[in-house]
Amino acid sequence: MWHSLSVDEKIEAIKDRIRKAVAKEQYDSALLLIKCLANILYGYNQYYKDDFLEEQMEILKGKLFGALDVPKRSAGGDGNSIFFYDGLGVDDGLELIYVKGLVKAGYHVVYLVRESAKGKFPMLQALLENSKAELLYIPTGLSTLEECRAIYEAQNRADIKAGFLYALPYDVAGVIAFMAAEKNYIRYRINFADYAYWLGGNRASDYCIEYREFGALLSDYYRGIPREHIILQPYYPYIDRDKEFEGFPFPVEKEDFIIFSGGTLYKTVDGEENLYYKMIEFCLDEFAHTKFWYAGNGEDRDAVELNKLRQKYAGRVFWSEEGRNDLFQVLQHVDLYVNTYPIGGGLMLQYAAAAGRVPLIYYRTIESRTQTIIGQKELGIEFNDLEAWKKEIRRLITDEEYRKTKEQRVLHAAIDADKFERNLSMILEQQKNEYGVSYAPLEGMDEIQRVYRERFGKYGVEDVIGKESYLPLLKVCPLIYLYSRMIKRAKKQ
């Protein structure tokens, strides 16, 4: 029975169903199964490439797009249009700074996003409209198969010079459409989920753009992407410096020392050790004038330890969900930023650096070290010894002159918009930029995979990938569907 299988056996069972769906020419079911399995692999995160899924995607690409009329053109032709596929449709991602850079460089942007994202990216929409870009929508209600064709048809035009794939790890429609666009134009994948499994491998893009060295190392060592096709492009936080600080969501006294941290809550969960919360508790115990503010979304199951701290230190520990547009101003008004553990944050680190606040990092693996700000290794903010971390945070809290000196050094560590845009133009014209990757050995991968494996084993497939993604799997995979019905009946009895 399904429930008695290991995770890897369940994965193989779904693969067998995909194989059968493709053989029977049930293409929509096959695509849906691939999407669901890719989401499972993303949550499980034990592999960074799956040859079986890539091969099935290649077969489906031929079946779905083999007979389509493709314009005769060479990659990187004379067109001045850039196709940008946005599989997320929000204002707080990399879409905004990439489109801003493309517009500034004088390109005509053809921007495609799902209709369900309307109203969710006002800043980006205003930028697109002011630059006379084409803003296209994928209609709601389409099947996965219809979405594949809609995305392909939107970019199948002779004026496209290059295309950017900005897709969720399990976005089967976006990935297969970009696979079908091979040799139509130069394809770039923006790898924002560099730490995880994602669909496409080296088939959906000609160049993989990484925002930090960790992603480049994974793509080289595990995803099979040639080094000459990996481009390092650090990013910067989009900041509205004219925005006013919206205030603290709790009372603040003059003598308070505010420690801030944030990101999706799962980044702070490391099994039974709960080291991140022990580190925060150390600060609260040692210094009575400290207050801790965490900002980030997350499931209730990932907030257990945070809620324990809120109860134990009532009036000193606070949790607010994401949604504020004044993050830069927030960082300017707190005293210190503590990075998440075991999974480090990237964008938050950069906001802290741009605001001139020391981001303190504890790491055990190369991934939690992050390396997303310039000269990070030389700034004295990284520690993989807990006692050294405690010694540093004591000094940062008690020695204001020392902290201010470090803040001045950190202030210049974030890449700015001009440098990002200059390097983006180099990428489009030369397929390289001024940043290089030092391909050092990947250390601590067992620890990274252990954290994801334990979380997956604790919560299971449905909880990790979400019910919205899991339910379609039940409809097209009878084995899982039958077992789920049995469980529901058992619970009612």
Description:
The chain is of the alpha/beta class and 493 residues long. It contains 19 helices and 13 strands. It has 3 domains: 94 residues, no CATH class; 186 residues, Rossmann fold (3-Layer(aba) Sandwich), CATH 3.40.50; 158 residues, 3-Layer(aba) Sandwich (Rossmann fold). 45% of the residues lie in helices and 13% in strands. Strands 3-2-1-4-5-6-7 form a 7-stranded parallel β-sheet, with helices on both faces. Strands 10-9-8-11-12-13 form a 6-stranded parallel β-sheet. It is globular, with a radius of gyration of 23 Å.
Brief summary:
Helix content is 45%, strand content 13%. The protein has 493 residues and is α/β, with parallel strands linked by helices.
Distance between the termini: 20 Å
List how many beta strands DSSP finds: 13
- Which CATH-level-2 architecture of the largest domain? 3-Layer(aba) Sandwich
Please give the CATH class of the largest domain.
Alpha Beta
As residue ranges, the low-confidence spans are 478-493
Strand order, main sheet: write it out. 3-2-1-4-5-6-7
Shape: globular
